[in-house]
Fold this sequence. Notes:
Helix 12 crosses helix 13. Strands 1-2-3-4-5-6-8-11-13-16-17-20-21-22 form a 14-stranded parallel sheet. Strands 7-9 form a two-stranded parallel sheet. It is built from 15 helices and 22 strands. The model is unreliable at 99-106 and 504-525 (pLDDT under 50). The N and C termini lie far apart (142 Å). The longest helix is centred in the first third of the chain and has 68 residues, at 6-73. The chain has 525 residues and is an alpha/beta fold. The chain has a domain at 80-192. Helix content is 40%, strand content 17%. Residues 13-71 form a coiled coil. InterPro entries: LRR_dom_sf. Keywords: Coiled coil.
Amino acid sequence: MCELDPNALDASIRILEEELQGLKSNENRLHQTEKELYRQLREVHEDIYGNQKATQEADKAIRTKQSLKKERENILLPAVALPPEILSMIFRETIDNFEDGLNGELCNAPMSLLLSWVCRRWRTIVVENPRFWTCINLHHCLQYNLAPYLSRSAGFQLAIMSGTWDKADEDKYEDRRREIQRFFSQFLRHAHRWQLLLVTGLDYPPLRELYYWLSKARTRTLRVIDLSSDQATGRTMPLFGAFCHPNLQSLSLQGIHIPAGFTAPNLKLLTLRGTQDNFTVPHANLHQLLVSATLLSQLELDVELVKFNAEEVGSISLPNLWHLGLYFTKIDSRQLRRVLTMISAPALDFIELEATGDECRQKPSEGSDFKSFSVDGQPRYPTVTRASFSGMVRDREDFEDLVHAFPNIKGVNLSSVDIPLCISVLEHPGPDSDMDNPSMRNEWPDLDDLQLDALAAKSCFPELCKWLERRRAGGCELVSLDFTSDLEREGPEDREWLAKLGELESLDDIISLVHCWGEGDLGTD
């Protein structure tokens, strides 16, 4: 048996140990590689999960945007984002609404300024539309340079307005005076297209400066003039550089004199009102104006305003006059007769008589103040079919004279009157009536519209009910009864009676009952 060489064995062992060490080293490297692969796999999984989550969020965002888009399609766009054409129509409607309220604090020039301040887009739309710069309110526009806007609106008519000025404006009189001067230095170049002037409170110092500049404006294009003064200062309406104003259609003056020689051949509406002072208008000036105004259709006049220099007054024919309003601070039969003699109106349809002063309640011991509404026993204005009497009926004789003077009434408004007294005049025994065979005569047989104001409900409802039933039985026109007074302040039993009156079936066909209830009142119609 051969013996092994120890050295060879040692060498073989060393070789095997080295190989084993190499295998262990390879095993470690494989483990490291495996760990690295697992790590990379985890990162890939995390990336896949992150991408899935991002994809889900993106899908959710897309669905949300699509839903919002559909909702936006079903709702109105914000006002600032509307198309220019739509915005322009809205602006025009807004501005016109303010322009229609001529006595309001705003008109289209300041409203245009307000709209132009909202955003740059709105400003472009407003500034480029000349229609938005045709009505100037002095309360709001004096501090602005309106020259460029007036130039833009050169193709349109202009209107100037001013409301009542307060004491604070007087304290700033010098500032206002300079502002008015600057404004009119711009405005006078455009006076040739000036069509409306409305100024209230001409007694205030700032407006006296305005008045001075108005008298310098040479224009004959004015169609509407409305001037008022709170005191009888003797101020005369400016002539605007001409005695004749052929385009003037509406003239309203309160506390302002009519200039001598002033004429307006196309005038259709004339209102002359006084003040609390003893302000008067010379008859000669009014006479000349009325003679020229053959197209006049509406005349409103304070009876005491006209100052007559002679007892006898010539008649002025106003063939187109259909509305005559006469207002009284006191009732003077001689003054009324001269005013009525002055006005010849063959086509008059509506007359309005209103007494406002405390002196109107006083009546002479003998005679009637309203006889002059008739001439030789015949109605002065037989064509009148509608009337309004407010505070005019003091006793039975007053109402008898009015009924006799206006026999063809179809619609009437009675305010502050004694209803039983009026009924006793409208319904009285006929000429053939006797004790055994009573027959009643009904005045105003064509009456179909009766409006009652400022009445005591409990004093008139029973009489009204019976009177309307008797009129129906007598073959008269059916009457529409309208209570325009606020009955909220009447007592509970008055409201109960009104409710019962509305429930009466026998009156359903002859009464259309309109009443003004406040909150908390009866719930009946």
